[in-house]
Specification:
three-stranded mixed beta sheet; elongated; 3 domains
Length: about 375
């Protein structure tokens, strides 16, 4: 590795597990030193975990080595004085990896920027979910936000969120961006509620989603920027007159090239009809999102097919972002059908769509009458949950 023109001959080895906030914090600190970090996931390599306990006497993570010099855990790393740290960095810069260095599974164990970013977003999301569950009332209807904001876990979360400014966004793949920004969006909504309270009217919601933000990779991203700028390929949001990113905005380079309709079943803005909260990973992200959409459509609070009244009732999400699902009633219903799991609900929708096609007037009715898709009766329509 070359850092500022200097060849780094050694390495720092960090033994960690995915999503561990202390591991993320340690690796973020090491990244600022410009040293090559070899990250070893001890969940994947059990034999190394056993060997690690022999070397250190500890089974917790992270455990950190500069070449063959054992530093300790994250707290030990953070407590090093500047002179100690300088000597350790110098040893890695000038000395090759010795034969008695701690074991690694191979020479390709270096974490990419994308892996670090996604681990960070997962750690933040997992911490906020723990806070949420720890302070949820027994009936599951209210959250004690005041107690949550005093929690030590919330302090840890805030410390970890500061590390977002060091994320290299331009190096992330499409899959890494999806997982990273979905997790960050959902965490930021809860963080915003903790700091400002839950918005109670339209004006407060507008201010909330255009004000609550994180400093990520050297740029400020609000909730609107993340959803409509990055994840929807820089499209106008609800009640927005302009696109989030102008042509000269450096954040435009981070935006996904195309709208990703499935993100609507992963983002939770705190509204009643939002999808449930979970954590996403870049591995197999498309399958995860498709499964989320299928589960969302199976829920009767999100989608109801009334065969008697020839009516389809959908979540407001489909009304707000209709353009993402094709822009017309026909394309919207076909998208819904294509993303449903095998069920009686899907068979009912198929029957209604078939009747509409047999009429030969599906497109005409869709254009002439808002939300109507079957000619059988004027009551046949797409309705939306309030």
């Amino acid at each position: 590795m070359v850092e500022d023109g200097t060849i780094m001959r050694g390495r720092v080895t960090v033994y960690s597990v995915p999503g561990c906030p202390h591991c993320i914090h340690a690796k973020a600190t090491l990244s600022t030193l410009g040293v090559p970090v070899c990250d070893v996931d001890v969940n994947k390599h059990r034999e190394i975990r056993a060997r690690l306990k022999e070397l250190t006497g500890h089974s917790t993570v992270p455990q950190i080595f500069f070449n063959n010099l054992y530093v300790g855990n994250n707290e030990d790393l953070q407590n090093l004085d500047p002179e100690q740290m300088e000597r350790l960095v110098l040893s890695v810069r000038e000395e090759p990896v010795p034969l008695d260095a701690p074991p690694v599974p191979g020479e390709n164990s270096l974490d990419s920027d994308g892996e670090i970013a996604c681990e960070l977003s997962e750690a933040l999301r997992n911490l906020i979910l723990k806070l949420y569950s720890d302070h949820l009332s027994e009936d599951g209807k209210t959250v004690d936000y005041k107690a949550m904001s005093r929690s030590l876990y919330f302090e840890r979360y805030c410390d970890l969120a500061v590390q977002l400014q060091r994320v290299e966004l331009l190096s992330l793949s499409r899959e890494e961006k999806l997982a990273f920004f979905i997790n960050i969006y959902n965490a930021l909504v809860i963080h915003g509620n903790l700091r400002l309270g839950f918005p109670k009217n339209i004006w407060q919601r507008y201010r909330f989603f255009n004000y609550v933000s994180y400093f990520i990779g050297g740029e400020v991203f609000t909730l609107q920027d993340i959803e409509n700028g990055v994840l929807r390929g820089n499209r106008k949001g609800v009640a927005q007159l302009l696109k989030p990113f102008s042509r000269n905005d450096p954040r435009l380079k981070v935006a996904l090239p195309d709208v990703e309709p499935l993100i609507h079943f992963a983002l939770n803005c705190g509204a009643k009809g939002c999808p449930p909260i979970k954590t996403y990973t870049p591995q197999d992200i498309d399958s995860q999102l498709r499964a989320a959409a299928e589960a969302f459509l199976e829920n009767d609070d999100s989608c109801v097919i009334d065969s008697v009244r020839r009516e389809v009732k959908l979540s407001q999400i489909f009304k707000w972002y209709k353009t993402d699902f094709g822009g017309t009633d026909e394309k919207l219903l076909n998208w819904v059908f294509d993303h449903m799991g095998a069920s009686q609900k899907k068979r009912n929708l198929q029957a209604l769509l078939s009747e509409g096609k047999d009429d030969g007037c599906l497109q005409q009715r869709s254009e002439q009458h808002t939300f109507q898709f079957i000619r059988m009766t004027p009551a046949s329509s797409i309705q939306y949950f309030l």
